[in-house]
Amino acid sequence: MISQLFILSSKGDRLVYRNFRGDGGDDVTDAFYRAVTSLPGDQAPVFMAREGQHFVHVRHGGLYVGATTTADTSPFVLVEFLNRLVTLLREHCGTLSEKSVSVNVALVQELLGEMVDFGYVQTTATEVLRSATHGEPETTKAFSLLDLRSVGLFGAETQQSRVAPGSVTNRPVLPPRGEQGGRREVFVDVVERLTVVIAANGTPLKVDVQGEIRLKSFVPGACELRMGLTEELSVGTEEQCGYGRLPLAAVAFHSSVDLEEFEQERVLRVTPGPGEVTLMRYQLAEDVAVPLPFRLLPSVEWEPAGRLRIHLKLRCDLPPKNHAINVVLQLPLPREASSLAQELSSPEQTAELQGGGRSLRWAIPRCQGGAQLGAVFRVQLPPTPPLGLGPAALTFELPALTVSGLRLRWLRLSAPPGAPPGPPQRWVRHLTHSDSYVVRL
Amino acid sequence: MTDSKYFTTTKKGEIFELKAELNSDKKEKKKEAVKKVIASMTVGKDVSALFPDVVNCMQTDNLELKKLVYLYLMNYAKSQPDMAIMAVNTFVKDCEDPNPLIRALAVRTMGCIRVDKITEYLCEPLRKCLKDEDPYVRKTAAVCVAKLHDINAQLVEDQGFLDTLKDLISDSNPMVVANAVAALSEIAESHPSSNLLDLNPQSINKLLTALNECTEWGQIFILDCLANYMPKDDREAQSICERVTPRLSHANSAVVLSAVKVLMKFMEMLSKDLDYYGTLLKKLAPPLVTLLSAEPELQYVALRNINLIVQKRPEILKHEMKVFFVKYNDPIYVKLEKLDIMIRLASQANIAQVLAELKEYATEVDVDFVRKAVRAIGRCAIKVEQSAERCVSTLLDLIQTKVNYVVQEAIVVIKDIFRKYPNKYESVIATLCENLDSLDEPEARAAMIWIVGEYAERIDNADELLESFLEGFHDESTQVQLQLLTAIVKLFLKKPTETQELVQQVLSLATQDSDNPDLRDRGYIYWRLLSTDPVAAKEVVLAEKPLISEETDLIEPTLLDELICYIGTLASVYHKPPSAFVEGSRGVVHKSLPPRTGSSESAESPDAAPSAGQAAEQPAVIPAQGDLLGDLLNLDLGPPVSGPPLAASSVQMGAVDLLGGGLDSLMGDESEGLRSDVGGSPAMGGSGFTAPGPAAPAAMGAPLGSGLGDLFDLTGGVGTLSGSYVAPKTVWLPAMKAKGLEISGTFSRQVGSICMDLVLTNKALQVMSDFAIQFNRNSFGLAPAAPLQVHAPLAPNQSVEISLPLNTVGSVMKMDPLNNLQVAVKNNIDVFYFSTLYPLHILFVEDGKMERQMFLATWKDIPNENEAQFQIKDCSLNADAVSSKLQGSNIFTIAKRNVEGQDMLYQSLKLTNGIWVLAELRIQPSNPSFTLSLKCRAPEVSQYVYQAYDAILKN
């Protein structure tokens, strides 16, 4: 059970605080902030113990969202709840930022009152909370450069993406009461995360594709939604998979999804209230050959006096009509490099040394399918024996593409009786981004 | 935050301003004012001065405003209890409101106001709300009972709320059921003995039905409650498992883990031959793997749990190695956990893959991660023998990089590899020696010195190397100093001619110039050993060391079983039982896995063994008839024959004890030393939370013991090995029942032979002669090894002490009680019968010391239902004293660990008939009661072993 809950700004100011069980002092937030900031590095442990209290926290949008407990509570409950809280705050306040939270304190407090009673989580369902709360969200129009992180796809925790209608999803899910207006929209995102390890000889050691179908609805009231998935889909590994099939190793559906038509026709049916929900999570079977988007062909020469010449050739193996954006290649160097000379193939690319010279960063804003990019770097290293370089790590986003090939064929909405005329806007977005794409040298 | 309209500084004027707004007639203005108050309160400003004004806003139809006012009340009522009373009427009225949201809100808020006066008013509304027609109100009221119980437990019991709460378990609304379960579970925790959550098949069925319908969070309450249920047999366990399994595919990881906990626990009860058992195992893997694609925080928690699960049931995830490979962008805490699990899953089948990964990791940037990866390579070598060679060459490659911390870690693990595979990889020593100068961490220096000392004969310049360390002796850490001392002594014993000066130097440094008692004592011991008898010294110092195994970094089997019960709780994150970190009474009830049922084995449990009728007549004199005794009557009682001289029955216990103590402390010290030898074993690299200390090595084997024995033989001339504990003599056969012959006696064990020490007293008026003795068949085949020798006839009122040697080659028949011995004694007058109970420890043989790895394997191998637990009360000895005392009676301590202030002794003993008994003795410093857990393939002996422990420790 949760004893206390708090949201702190990145500077440690208390934005929201609630004591559910009347135990523990009110100074926990200070104690927590001291504990978090006194740690070296920025990867604080998920759990910290202090005088019989256990802190757990997650970080989102620069805020610390944390809870304490004194009992032997399920850590999964704590972390899941905090994550859920973050999602709900986004739904209700639009974005999650210091400003949006502090402006909506009363609403947040009201939500917390319904969500948790005496430390026991009661509900996190948007529609239930909607019926039980009465506060109105105050929207913040803030669009500062600092908030850039939260722009873009809600489904993908990526840096930035200029793929989708930008900040349209960053508004409260619920239109102000009494107003029938607001844009009635439904967003469905198919987001895949790619984890790849490529051995030095170019053979893929591990290819792992995890995907999610997420839905965010701005339509008030319930409306039935049907979506057709790629028909080649098959679930389970035992099943015989013929050519061109798309076998999934594991699939989990949200409890609200009606699977009656899934077995036969690969149709998901769901009647969502306003809010965000992950309809389906899946994992591609291991033995499927997924076309890899990038190949890296490195060649490294050691020149005398600690000079290292690195020639990188990056080939984008996407179909020509697709492209990758925000491609960043990170190459750890064996020793602190003191200087870098570069030859890049186009002016919009950049390269720099990072981490005090411990790694090389090559950024490519956009890369068309089939393109081949080359770069030559000369690095000055302290005199050391020749050492291994790498592994190189790539991050990128592939808009309008799922590497697995799983797509939404169609999306139909049937509005409930009494809804305003005209179908709501439907947006279907596909995206693949790199979770961990490592090329060993 | 200053730009927000609610956040302005609380100057005095502002409070006044708010006060005015709160008392405004305009509703909208009022609400905005309350919002401002709440905003100030939330950021921690003191707005309690506005209490009366805010309470005045309470009577309103606006639910939003009401909620805000209630929130304010919850926060400040405790500091202003008298004012809070003003609100009571509104509360009571709101509990009757037609709107269920308001009723629920009122009862919820009242429960949060921890003021006694308000609590009194809460009872009536609460009683109504518990029976409200609206489920939303009922579920709120259910939690409110728990709140009230937290404030005033007595009140809740007196008012009968607990019974109402129990009724709610059968409620039609699943959310009400879930909250009632949560509330009852919490209340039950503070009354461990009460039968609040009276779980039976019917109520379980109701819970399982509610499970399918309630919210995800409610499912967690119910699953956690189910985990505490003990199904009556394997069929019930299976049917519950079947109904819980669908939860494994839930999107909420907390639901998944709570389900995993239930399944892991109930699986214990299922027979492994069952098809269903295999199915269940297969079903557990995918949800665990899926958790690894969640947010890093959840991944971390999941990995900590998986770490436990793979130790308990490695088969679940044995094919899933790849998912534990580290991603470059994982947070460091996830990376370290993944490494740990990779090692646990490493096997011959996947070792090549694992090694390739580890080698990559060892070249990464993060220092902590790289260190752990290098250690992991060493652990692979120790765990999978076939990979050792490849591991060593990988480590050598890494040493070539000359990266300082990589080299140091590599040397520490290579030392462990030497310990595991002696005389196999010593060819690499030369390479190691090249890096001597770059070592600056104590652990690495100590490891290197150990290697130099251990293999001094193969290193030409070993003396120079060690001498170079000696220069800065006093600046070294203790670990290095101790190691250096031992290494130089080893060197001296191997190359005595060239190194005399060196050894003298180190001995004087250690004994004269050091303040460290450990170092000084060790120095003195070496000094004395060397000056008295170099041959003995050689045997002691260069004794063969026991092999180390990878098991060192596993969690204790008993702790692991307990932790499995806490899957999905904080205990699984910290890898400590909740009693170690939860304050107060909550959660200190020890949980244990259910025993496996469905086989006939359980019928043989120790409790079931003695049947009532037989047990009653235990130590009484046997009635003089019965077929059993037939062969006793046909005794062939020949004339006394002079046999071999018998061992002296009286041992100078005092002297032996003194010496024994001395020996023990010597050995203790030495094993300390060796422990730091072994110190670098993989466990040391464990993560921050659980650092099971490096276990004492499987101690000094027989050669060392006898070496020391010899030594003291030479020096002191007192050459007696301490015998096992001997109970005082008791009267076995009273004179009344044996025509004047009184027999008292006891049993003893010395140097491997068992003796029955008898005193025969003639209380009759005539002379007794022609004594003879015979035993009936008994459980362990005890029989006299020589005839009973009474050399002269026994005159009236005369006694004779006899020590009768026994052996265990007689015929065997299971007796009841097990240690019952029926004896017939004949003299010139008649034949007399009596029975006596012999203490089991006379059957503990001298080679009852189990190899460490054997011990762990056996402990795991013996099924849990064979484990018996006993309490040894009122014993004030400390662990070392206990260990030495038990050793005297051939109960051997294999390892000692300190877990959270408790000493855990792992012991083994062997009975004359080859039965092994494994023991775990838990000693808490403040508690005179020890807990003894015994595991044995023949569980019926456990009870008698416990009696032996008890007798030895209390004397």
TrEMBL record, chain A:
<dbReference type="InterPro" id="IPR028565">
    <property type="entry name" value="MHD"/>
</dbReference>
<dbReference type="GO" id="GO:0019904">
    <property type="term" value="F:protein domain specific binding"/>
</dbReference>
<comment type="function">
    <text>Component of the adaptor protein complex 4 (AP-4). Adaptor protein complexes are vesicle coat components involved both in vesicle formation and cargo selection. They control the vesicular transport of proteins in different trafficking pathways. AP-4 forms a non clathrin-associated coat on vesicles departing the trans-Golgi network (TGN) and may be involved in the targeting of proteins from the trans-Golgi network (TGN) to the endosomal-lysosomal system.</text>
</comment>
<dbReference type="GO" id="GO:0030131">
    <property type="term" value="C:clathrin adaptor complex"/>
</dbReference>
<feature type="domain" description="MHD">
    <location>
        <begin position="183"/>
        <end position="440"/>
    </location>
</feature>
<dbReference type="Pfam" id="PF00928">
    <property type="entry name" value="Adap_comp_sub"/>
</dbReference>
<comment type="similarity">
    <text>Belongs to the adaptor complexes medium subunit family.</text>
</comment>
<keyword id="KW-0333">Golgi apparatus</keyword>
<dbReference type="InterPro" id="IPR050431">
    <property type="entry name" value="Adaptor_comp_med_subunit"/>
</dbReference>
<keyword id="KW-0813">Transport</keyword>
<dbReference type="InterPro" id="IPR011012">
    <property type="entry name" value="Longin-like_dom_sf"/>
</dbReference>
<dbReference type="GO" id="GO:0006622">
    <property type="term" value="P:protein targeting to lysosome"/>
</dbReference>
<keyword id="KW-0168">Coated pit</keyword>
<keyword id="KW-0472">Membrane</keyword>
<dbReference type="GO" id="GO:0005769">
    <property type="term" value="C:early endosome"/>
</dbReference>
<dbReference type="GO" id="GO:0005802">
    <property type="term" value="C:trans-Golgi network"/>
</dbReference>
<dbReference type="GO" id="GO:0000045">
    <property type="term" value="P:autophagosome assembly"/>
</dbReference>
<dbReference type="GO" id="GO:0006895">
    <property type="term" value="P:Golgi to endosome transport"/>
</dbReference>
<dbReference type="InterPro" id="IPR001392">
    <property type="entry name" value="Clathrin_mu"/>
</dbReference>
<dbReference type="GO" id="GO:0005829">
    <property type="term" value="C:cytosol"/>
</dbReference>
<keyword id="KW-0653">Protein transport</keyword>
<protein>
    <recommendedName>
        <fullName>AP-4 complex subunit mu-1</fullName>
    </recommendedName>
</protein>
Automatic annotation (TrEMBL), chain B:
<dbReference type="InterPro" id="IPR026739">
    <property type="entry name" value="AP_beta"/>
</dbReference>
<dbReference type="Pfam" id="PF01602">
    <property type="entry name" value="Adaptin_N"/>
</dbReference>
<keyword id="KW-0813">Transport</keyword>
<dbReference type="InterPro" id="IPR011989">
    <property type="entry name" value="ARM-like"/>
</dbReference>
<feature type="compositionally biased region" description="Low complexity">
    <location>
        <begin position="599"/>
        <end position="612"/>
    </location>
</feature>
<feature type="region of interest" description="Disordered">
    <location>
        <begin position="586"/>
        <end position="618"/>
    </location>
</feature>
<dbReference type="Pfam" id="PF02883">
    <property type="entry name" value="Alpha_adaptinC2"/>
</dbReference>
<feature type="domain" description="Clathrin adaptor alpha/beta/gamma-adaptin appendage Ig-like subdomain">
    <location>
        <begin position="725"/>
        <end position="835"/>
    </location>
</feature>
<dbReference type="GO" id="GO:0030131">
    <property type="term" value="C:clathrin adaptor complex"/>
</dbReference>
<dbReference type="InterPro" id="IPR016342">
    <property type="entry name" value="AP_complex_bsu_1_2_4"/>
</dbReference>
<feature type="domain" description="Beta-adaptin appendage C-terminal subdomain">
    <location>
        <begin position="844"/>
        <end position="954"/>
    </location>
</feature>
<dbReference type="GO" id="GO:0030276">
    <property type="term" value="F:clathrin binding"/>
</dbReference>
<dbReference type="GO" id="GO:0012505">
    <property type="term" value="C:endomembrane system"/>
</dbReference>
<dbReference type="InterPro" id="IPR015151">
    <property type="entry name" value="B-adaptin_app_sub_C"/>
</dbReference>
<dbReference type="InterPro" id="IPR008152">
    <property type="entry name" value="Clathrin_a/b/g-adaptin_app_Ig"/>
</dbReference>
<dbReference type="GO" id="GO:0016192">
    <property type="term" value="P:vesicle-mediated transport"/>
</dbReference>
<dbReference type="InterPro" id="IPR013037">
    <property type="entry name" value="Clathrin_b-adaptin_app_Ig-like"/>
</dbReference>
<dbReference type="InterPro" id="IPR002553">
    <property type="entry name" value="Clathrin/coatomer_adapt-like_N"/>
</dbReference>
<dbReference type="Pfam" id="PF09066">
    <property type="entry name" value="B2-adapt-app_C"/>
</dbReference>
<comment type="similarity">
    <text>Belongs to the adaptor complexes large subunit family.</text>
</comment>
<dbReference type="GO" id="GO:0031410">
    <property type="term" value="C:cytoplasmic vesicle"/>
</dbReference>
<dbReference type="InterPro" id="IPR009028">
    <property type="entry name" value="Coatomer/calthrin_app_sub_C"/>
</dbReference>
